């Protein structure tokens, strides 16, 4: 196999994207259950975005469709990545404006919200800041967890678009000498 991931087949690129999503979700679970860093509702929504991306990556990689299908899978992954990126940016805003009364924290946990309110109201309340999302309990190289998830959303979404929209050697007409 070519060591350059930009030259890999669509299937290899998408299955690698799926593995990346699985690894990110596994790390989030490790942080939650081994390091005892409880996720806030915004963290949960970011996980949901990675789950959606992982599903689209796996299905696209296993299906290995022709050009139009590759584009559809790439767009689906990119949409999930964009939603996750928006949540990550909102989370970063909450973390870095902790003195603004309208932006503090995240509110009660997602399980409580889903038990206490209809789903539409629970989702609305989860996005309203009023709990512990403003707390920074983890950093790596100076970036908080939502900062790293934002980078991952951008890279994985961009990689999916690259894989889905790039011209492939097998799709090009044969050259005449």
From TrEMBL:
Which Pfam family is one of those matched by this entry?
DsbB
Cytoplasmic-facing ranges: 1-13, 66-71, 167-177
Q: Where are the transmembrane segments?
A: 44-65, 72-93, 147-165
Q: How does it sit in the membrane?
A: Multi-pass membrane protein
Question: Which residues pair up as cystines?
Answer: 40-43
* SUPFAM superfamilies recorded: DsbB-like
Q: Which InterPro entries match?
A: DiS_bond_form_DsbB/BdbC, Disulphide_bond_form_DsbB, DsbB, DsbB-like_sf
Please classify the protein's predominant subcellular localization into one broad category.
membrane
| Places the protein is found | Cell inner membrane; Cell membrane
What keywords are annotated for this sequence in UniProt? Cell inner membrane, Cell membrane, Chaperone, Disulfide bond, Electron transport, Membrane, Oxidoreductase, Redox-active center, Transmembrane, Transmembrane helix, Transport
Q: In terms of domain of life, where is this protein from?
A: Bacteria
Topology check: give the Periplasmic ranges: 31-48
Output the NCBIfam families linked to this UniProt entry.
PRK04388.1
Function, please?
Required for disulfide bond formation in some periplasmic proteins. Acts by oxidizing the DsbA protein.
Similarity comment: Belongs to the DsbB family.
Extract the PANTHER family matched here: DISULFIDE BOND FORMATION PROTEIN B
Specify the protein name.
Answer: Disulfide bond formation protein B
Encoded by which gene?
dsbB
């Amino acid at each position: 196999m070519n060591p350059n991931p930009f030259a890999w087949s669509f299937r290899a690129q998408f299955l690698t994207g799926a593995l990346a999503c699985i690894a990110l979700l596994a790390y989030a679970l490790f942080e939650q259950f081994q390091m005892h860093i409880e996720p806030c509702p915004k963290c949960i929504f970011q996980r949901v975005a990675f789950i959606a991306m992982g599903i689209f990556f796996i299905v696209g990689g296993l299906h290995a469709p022709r050009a139009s299908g590759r584009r559809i899978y790439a767009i689906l992954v990119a949409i999930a990545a964009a939603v996750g990126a928006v949540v990550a940016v909102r989370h970063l805003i909450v973390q870095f404006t902790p003195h603004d009364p309208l932006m503090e924290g995240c509110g009660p946990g997602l399980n409580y919200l889903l038990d206490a309110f209809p789903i539409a109201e629970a989702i609305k309340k989860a996005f309203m800041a009023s709990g512990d999302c403003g707390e920074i309990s983890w950093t790596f190289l100076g970036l908080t967890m939502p900062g790293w998830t934002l980078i991952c959303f951008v890279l994985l979404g961009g990689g999916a678009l690259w894989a889905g929209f790039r011209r492939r050697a097998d799709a090009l007409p044969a050259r005449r000498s």
